[in-house]
Amino acid sequence: MTTTKWWLVGAMLIIALVVLAGFTLGISPKLEEVSATRATRTAALAQNEVYELQLAALQRQFDGLETVQDELAVLRAAIPEGAALPAFIGQLDAIAGRTSVTVTEFSSADAMPYLPVVPDASAPDSTAPGTDGAGSAAPSPLVTAENFIAVPVTISVAGGFDAVLEFLDGVQNAQRLMTVTSFSSGMPSADTPNRVTGQIAGIVYVLLNAG
């Protein structure tokens, strides 16, 4: 082999070593860095998807919270934290105005602790689903004599007989929950043949704030 050929072989070896050294010292670390960056990006994208799912779940819960708050407001209007009798009388006056009767008297007795009805095992349908064994809904353990108060009330109204019955229906379906325990009406007099008096006795409730 001539000297020129040896020089050519040597030059090719030197070039190969330079390329190999460049790959080992420069290109290879960069490839590893790119691979690590890709892995980090993939992990970040996966974590972002988890965050998006959590955010969507929180958004659904937040949207439902407004509905729950609205329902709670309705329940609190039906059973307030205090007797709130002036507001209740205002509701009665509004119902009286709609039904064309006159509230002639309103009275309330002392508040008393609520006492749940004692189940009667001998009552029919005592095994019906969702009952307490007596055919009626089982009382909630959250409702106790300490936080649930009953206030007896009596309402006297005057007006046409149909109007008095309409007022009675309005009271039973009013915003404030009232359980009617008795109702009676008098006979019309000769002077007012189209006017009767009605006596309504019932109970309104108070749920003390347990929080």
Topology, please?
Blueprint: H1 3-78, H2 85-99, E1 102-108, E2 112-113, E3 148-159, H3 161-172, E4 178-185, E5 196-207
Antiparallel strand pairs: 1-3, 2-3, 3-5, 4-5
Written overview of the protein:
The structure is a single chain. With 211 residues, the chain is of the alpha+beta class. It has 2 domains: 7-78; 85-115 and 142-207, 2-Layer Sandwich (Alpha-Beta Plaits), CATH 3.30.70.60. It is built from 3 helices and 5 strands; from the N terminus they run H-H-E-E-E-H-E-E. The chain has helices spanning 3-78, 85-99, 161-172, and strands at 102-108, 112-113, 148-159, 178-185, 196-207. Strands 1, 2, 3, 4 and 5 form a 5-stranded antiparallel beta sheet that branches. Helix 2 (85-99) runs antiparallel to helix 3 (161-172). The longest helix has 76 residues, at 3-78. Residues 126-137 have low confidence and may be disordered. It comes from Cryobacterium serini. The chain crosses the membrane at residues 6-28. Residues 41-68 form a coiled coil. This is Type 4a pilus biogenesis protein PilO. InterPro entries: PilO (IPR007445), Transl_elong_EF1B/ribsomal_bS6 (IPR014717).
Rg estimate, integer Å: 41 Å
Name the structural class. alpha+beta
What is the third-level CATH name, the topology of the largest domain? Alpha-Beta Plaits
Q: Return residue spans where pLDDT drops below 50 for at least 5 consecutive residues.
A: 126-137
Strand content: 15-25%
Query: What's the helical proportion of residues?
Result: 40-55%
| Tally of domains | 2
Give the N-terminus to C-terminus distance in angstroms.
102 Å
- Written as H for each helix and E for each strand, in order along the chain, the element string is HHEEEHEE
- According to CATH, the homologous superfamily of the largest domain is Ribosomal protein S6/Translation elongation factor EF1B
Biggest β-sheet: count, sense, barrel?
Answer: 5 strands, antiparallel
- CATH class descriptor of the largest domain: Alpha Beta
The count of helical stretches stands at 3
- CATH architecture identity of the largest domain: 2-Layer Sandwich
Report the mean per-residue pLDDT as an integer.
Answer: 74
| Backbone shape | rod-shaped
Number of separate strands = 5
